[in-house]
Design brief:
By secondary structure, this protein is an alpha+beta fold. It is 29% helix and 34% strand. The structure holds 2-acetamido-2-deoxy-6-O-phosphono-alpha-D-glucopyranose (16G). The site of 2-acetamido-2-deoxy-6-O-phosphono-alpha-D-glucopyranose has 15 residues, from helix 4, strand 6, helix 7, strand 8 and strand 9.
Length: 241
């Protein structure tokens, strides 16, 4: 399986072979990999070469290591198109997964200067602060904090936000969601994110900040979400003008 006379480096050949096995399902999520020593013996190559291939695959997210247990195949990342303005519930249902939320906090607070400015409401006006863990098929995917004006999004309850906020806003309140601005950046997970997302310390997370507006331009929500970088991949389609 390894061609030592090929101009392609051996570590690269191993990487490509493992990737192929992961992509065609021969190796499944959470399958364990043979040890570096077994690999090296099987292919008659140095352990250094095996380590290089495995390190690259770990860095690219195909494999993960567990201290004292070995190396395993990662779950496939969810691909999320950055086009339509969709809700978490819609995104998960569209891929046949069951969305759910674990409510961490739900309260009315007085708008801080920053939130008041973004929602264009007066300082200390009532604002719902909703903190949820968003899960797909019972696996935590993101930690999300949403701020909406209590005078605009009236009558919110815990059971509504345990279901879908966008569904309530559109179907029950009849408000028309128009557009959103969003930024996406990579950060290191905080202790809270590590705890609630079940990821290891020092993992990266994808921080998304969204400001959503109604069709008439009224600011609707200010959102901060941390998505698991090991489970999410965002895709964008671009057209050259
Ligand atoms: C998504 C949105 C968030 C919105 C929520 C509504 C991002 C980064 N955030 O998580 O802005 O509040 O969906 O979801 O995409 P829901 O209708 O399922 O409650």
């Amino acid at each position: 399986m390894i061609d030592k006379s090929s101009p392609l480096p051996i570590y690269y050949q191993i990487e490509e072979q493992l990737k192929k096995q992961i992509e065609n399902g021969e190796l499944k999520p959470n399958d364990s990999l043979p040890s570096e020593r077994e690999f090296a013996e099987r292919f008659e190559i140095s352990r250094m070469t095996v380590r290089q291939a495995i390190n690259n695959l770990v860095n690219d997210g195909y494999l993960y290591r567990q201290k004292g247990r070995g190396t395993f195949v990662s779950e496939k990342k969810l691909e999320q198109q950055l086009v339509g303005l969709t809700s978490f519930t819609e995104d998960m249902k569209a891929r046949g997964m069951v969305p759910s939320s674990k409510l961490l906090s739900f309260e009315i607070i007085a708008a801080s200067e920053k939130i008041a400015e973004q929602l264009q409401i007066s300082l200390h006006a009532p604002v719902y602060e909703i903190k949820r863990i968003r899960l797909a098929d019972d696996v935590p995917m993101a930690l999300e904090s949403v701020y909406v004006s209590a005078n605009l999004v009236k009558g919110l309850t815990e059971s509504i936000v345990n279901d879908s906020l966008y569904r309530y806003i559109e179907e029950e309140l009849g408000l028309k969601i128009g557009e959103a601005n969003q930024t996406l950046e990579s950060i290191l997970a905080s202790e809270t994110e590590v705890k609630h997302l079940g990821i290891s310390s020092y993992s990266p997370v994808l921080l998304i900040q969204r400001n959503t507006y109604l069709q008439d331009g009224t600011p609707l929500e200010v959102v901060k979400s941390s998505y698991r970088a090991d489970r999410y991949k965002f895709t964008i389609n671009m057209t050259r003008s």
